[in-house]
């Protein structure tokens, strides 16, 4: 439960940073508070769904990545329609943002796994 909470908060933070950068580039003056909560809700739905998609195992990692990204893109497109995001942000931009957030998440997971492997190796060396 702790890990999923951290992942939700981390992906929400990355989402908000990307939204802020997008707003800065497009000349926006502020980020609506509704956008913060909407992003949080979408990230909750995404992470709960990813728990189910990760139960699908394949010998092809790319297939698992495509399933994850496809699910995330579907959630963002559906919630984009629900929250009327398309009035301010084109659908293509949301699709690219979603892929970027996924890539950042995969990168952060890889860094964390590498640190854990190093810690395990150190413990094994001490044990010897």
Describe the structure.
The chain has 128 residues and is mostly helical. The protein has 4 helices and no strands. Helix 1 (2-26) packs across helix 2, helix 2 runs antiparallel to helix 3 (61-82) and helix 3 crosses helix 4 (91-127). The two termini are 34 Å apart. The mean pLDDT is 90.
Outline:
The chain is mostly helical and 128 residues long.
Note the overall shape: globular
First and last CA, distance = 34 Å
Radius of gyration: 17 Å
Helix run count: 4
Total beta strand runs = 0
The major pleated sheet works out as:
none
Structural class label: mainly alpha
Mean of pLDDT: 90
Residue share in helix: over 70%
Helix-strand pattern: HHHH
Proportion of β residues?
A: under 5%
Low-pLDDT segments, ≥5 res = none
Question: What does the secondary structure layout of this molecule look like, with pairings?
Answer:
Blueprint lengths: L1 H25 L6 H21 L7 H22 L8 H37 L1
Helix pairs in contact: 1-2, 1-4, 2-3, 3-4
């Amino acid at each position: 439960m702790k890990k999923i909470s951290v992942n939700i908060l981390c992906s929400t933070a990355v989402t908000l940073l990307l939204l802020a950068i997008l707003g800065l580039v497009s000349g926006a003056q502020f980020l609506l508070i509704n956008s913060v909560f909407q992003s949080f809700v979408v990230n909750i739905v995404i992470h709960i769904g990813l728990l189910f998609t990760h139960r699908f195992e394949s010998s092809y990692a790319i297939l698992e990545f495509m399933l994850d990204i496809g699910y995330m893109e579907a959630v963002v497109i559906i919630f984009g329609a629900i929250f009327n995001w398309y009035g301010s942000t084109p659908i293509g931009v949301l699709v690219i943002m979603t892929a970027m957030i996924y890539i950042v998440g995969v990168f952060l997971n890889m860094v964390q796994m590498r640190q854990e492997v190093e810690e395990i190796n150190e413990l094994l060396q001490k044990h010897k």
